[in-house]
UniProtKB/TrEMBL annotation:
<dbReference type="InterPro" id="IPR011990">
    <property type="entry name" value="TPR-like_helical_dom_sf"/>
</dbReference>
<dbReference type="InterPro" id="IPR053937">
    <property type="entry name" value="GOST_TM"/>
</dbReference>
<keyword id="KW-0472">Membrane</keyword>
<feature type="repeat" description="PPR">
    <location>
        <begin position="925"/>
        <end position="959"/>
    </location>
</feature>
<feature type="region of interest" description="Disordered">
    <location>
        <begin position="466"/>
        <end position="486"/>
    </location>
</feature>
<dbReference type="InterPro" id="IPR050872">
    <property type="entry name" value="PPR_P_subfamily"/>
</dbReference>
<feature type="transmembrane region" description="Helical">
    <location>
        <begin position="246"/>
        <end position="266"/>
    </location>
</feature>
<comment type="similarity">
    <text>Belongs to the PPR family. P subfamily.</text>
</comment>
<feature type="repeat" description="PPR">
    <location>
        <begin position="960"/>
        <end position="994"/>
    </location>
</feature>
<feature type="repeat" description="PPR">
    <location>
        <begin position="714"/>
        <end position="748"/>
    </location>
</feature>
<feature type="repeat" description="PPR">
    <location>
        <begin position="749"/>
        <end position="783"/>
    </location>
</feature>
<feature type="transmembrane region" description="Helical">
    <location>
        <begin position="315"/>
        <end position="336"/>
    </location>
</feature>
<keyword id="KW-0732">Signal</keyword>
<keyword id="KW-0809">Transit peptide</keyword>
<dbReference type="InterPro" id="IPR002885">
    <property type="entry name" value="PPR_rpt"/>
</dbReference>
<keyword id="KW-0812">Transmembrane</keyword>
<dbReference type="Pfam" id="PF13041">
    <property type="entry name" value="PPR_2"/>
</dbReference>
Amino acid sequence: MMPMASSSLARLLVAVVLLFTSSALLCADASVHDCSGERFAADGNAFVLHGGSEGVYASAKAAAFIRFEKVAFRRTPESAAAAEEDGNRTATVTAVIFEAGDRDAVGGADVSVSGGRALCCTPDMARLGACTEGTATYRALNGTGWPRVFAASFLPGSLEAAFPDETVAMARTGMYTLLFVHCDASLAGGQVAARGKTIWKNSRGYLPGRMAPLLPFYGAMSLAFAALAAYWFAQCARFWREVVPLQSCATLVIALGMLEAATWYFDLAEFNESGVRPRGATFWAATSGALRGAAARVLVLAVAMGHMVVRPTLAGLKSARVAGLGAAFFAAAEALEVSENVGTVSDHSPSPTRRLFLLLPVAALNAVFVYWIFSSLSKTLNKLKAKRMTAKLEMYRRLNNALIIAVAVSLGWITFEIHFKSTDEYNERWRAAWVIPAVWQLISFSLLCAVCLMWAPSQSSTRYAYLEDEEEEGEDEDRDVEDTRPLIRPGPLSYVDNWAISVSKDATTIILRTDSGVYAKAAGDGGKRAFLPRRIREVRRLIQSIVDYCGNAGSELFELAHMLVSNLGQSMTLLQVYAAVIRIFVESSMFEDALLTYVEAKNVGVDRRLCNFLLKCLVEGNQIMYARSLFDDMKSCGPSPNVCSYSILMSMYTHGERLCLNEAFDLLCEMESNGVRPNTTTYGTYLYGLCRSRQVTSAWDFLQTLAQSGGPCSNYCFNAVIHGFCSKGQVDKAIEVFHGMKKCGFVPDVHSYSILVDGFCKHGDLLKGYDMLDEMARNGICPNQVSYSSLLHGLCKTGQVALALKIFKNLQDHGFEHDQINYSIILHGCCQHLDLKAISDLWFDMIHHDITPDVYNYTSLIYALCRHRNLQDALGVFELMLENGLSPNIVTCTILVDSFSKEGLVGEAFLFLDRIHRSLGIVPNLCMYRVIINGLCKTNKYSDVWKFLADMIKRGYVPDVVLCSIIIDGFVKALKLQEALRLYRKMLDEGVKPNTFTYSSLINGLCNDDRLPEAMGLIRDMIGEDLLLDNVLYTSIIACYCRRLNMKAANEWLRQMERSGVFPDAFVYTCMIDGYSKVLAMDGARLMMEEMGKRKLKPTVVTYTALIIGYLKTGDEKEACMMYESMRHAGISPDVKLRCILGIGNDRGDCDDSQKANGVT
């Protein structure tokens, strides 16, 4: 049956697609009201052609109008000949545009006309002087120019009368109607045909006013369906093994609803944008809506009939009655939807008779569906009651309530719709008309959500499958005892079936039987003395198995509890069974069920120990609201909370993600007022919370007051405060607390010392950390793994890896067994600083001591190999890591990709990225791309930079300022300044704000290229962004001015640099000295040299060379010689350039050239 259904569905889909495609090729209507041969119809004493009726939104920002395009009327030759015989009488067609509120201005009252209102001027009206007989009559409203009237006349002998192309602007929002009227009785009988079109446009687009609000509504509905689909598909993907056919039908309904909403949205959006309404899209939207409506009703009917709950399969849905009803509804709804929507481009209401003719079948079929659904639901409810399937009964009651609400709301809305349409004959409430179809959509969507939430796939969906009774109730007990099936038979266990409990004759076996024939048994050991604890364990196993297979067991487990107690001969109390159930629920994180069991257990009386156990589990499970409710129940109904209860709640306030210190303090006050004395655990927990919130000083003051008043405190309290001060970096204060602890008579334990050792080492004071370890040994306290790991980590962090390794081995030689953490710390430090041999020895030592390397260790080793440019071995370690079942993380892959890029193996890097993405699911992040591109820039692989950048954008990452700055800096260093500036402008266009590093790179490049005006422009931009100039920027600007020999500007920038707190280095002074020397301002050069001495900056050979050349140019050979001697006295040897200038070079010719180049003789 199922393959045939699938085939039929496939053929139906193909037919719909073909129909949609062919429909899309047909001509489409628009907000253009097209006339193609329409003829006038008699209306009272006039002949009228309706030209359109639309709600128009007027706005000062955008034009709203009606435009006439090639509107003309053609009469028959016979009527033209008759007019000539009648003396060439002129016939006129009048176009009248009016707003619904001004409809009384069109026509006039005349009792002689049917309906009492005449559109054409009657003889009586003409005698009163109100109009000219035989013409359309209207009354101009004062000062408004409305209604707007246009006329076109048939000239003698002419067959056609045409309106000029004209645009009528709408200045007021309203429902506007266009009528074409003629009053010539000789043209009756359809002798005048219209052609041309009128284009109606709102200020918001081409959508008619009543349709316009539906555009955002269907957009919102599309998102709502998408959210529902995402939830539903996530549940289906999560529990795909448990998905049943009923849930597949729900998937189809959701997909159709999403398709319908999206198609309506795109149909209306295209209509609004272009003015053309595609018939194909409208047809498909209407079709998908009708199909979704039929499928949804069949789905609800299936649920109501109990399929997959009290019936085995969906086979019943293939009956002729259900299939015929669904097909009939689809056909009727399709006819109604297509009639109302396809080709509709106006707000003019369709013919009421035609609409009623199409609406009645849909209403009748809906009534049949409602009757069938509720009658089936009633039978299903009765069956569930008879079987005592309380959980399923509750679920179906919720469905029944949802359906009753939906039907009630639907009936109310039908009443409102009838009232709305019957009292709005002229569509004056057109702006609210969109709400009517919108509410029908919301009712349908809400009911679908309710069904989906109640029947969503879960880890035990298949437990709803019905199984016929396999065995009779009256089987003898011996057969049950001989059953050798396991504790719970593999397969679904329906927790809503009837339970049957029995015990074997020797009281060693508990047997559970359900209506579906599923057995469970738990064997005792047969010993009278040992039977009770064994029995409790087996009962727990029994309940655990039920919960594991059923997902939960609700109130049915309460019935099972009573059965167990009565059938086990009172060897277990009812409270013990409830305690076992609560324990199982909290271990399975089923906290709500645990609370329900607690409420049930209160009927037999619960003890404080069980309450505290449940409260502790709720706190550990972060169930804040449940924990508070339980605590309040204990206070109001008992048993009253004791100090343990309060301590558990204190832990919740101080250990959670959100600290609640005010509530914690109030809890302490409440304990005192209730006569419950806090203990050391309570105070220690409160102090821990204060320290977590960085209120360590307050915690220390509180602890001192507590100790001085003789209150309960312990090492735990002092350790919390010591840890708080160490976390804030106030190790001196931690030592003060440590000494205060001793004064109060408390002996510091290993935790106290370990906290201090960690605090000293983290803040670089390794000597004091070592002293604390020494003090521990003197006091007979053996340091633990944490104590040593803190010292080892501190040494490695400060680069003293060799010393850390030595201490590590000494401890090992003295019998200390290092754990995974210590090995990881030392291995990481060695990989950062030592050679490969030391790393290899440590790695094998780690394996020798049965410490299995983890991902962190493998990553450290790969980093070390890549740091030593040994990429092949690093890849070998990577493969070994995979073989050992470890999944690398993003850091591991980033290190390898960085090594690929630094080696210039760009292709291999791309292949590696694809591999880890495909096989390991690791997606490159922004940090990885930064590393790759930085490596490429350093190796001048700029063409590959763009490849990686494109791949990064393709994967959805947006380059940030750090990445862009790296690329810009690389371009500048490679002398690709134009590329750098292009990327800078692209950053600005994309809204990425440059940082100081970005500006420094660009300005440095521009200054080196002697493009100072552009550099100054960037500096102004930088100052406008409130960014501070750094040493690199000042140096670049000063060096550029010095190269330009503009020493005044260079000196000003130097002084500004000093005022801003950035101190110049030797390079800046060298640039200044070189510039002064080139302009022969040797006093300035000498002053710069003196400032260098004051700042204790050492001149270089370049500095001395610039000074010596300057003095030689000015002819002051004495000063030049003095400078040369100062240079030699400072231990600086002249370079080749200076030796040539001074004539002490080996190559005379080269020296002469150098002297000429520098202007020295």
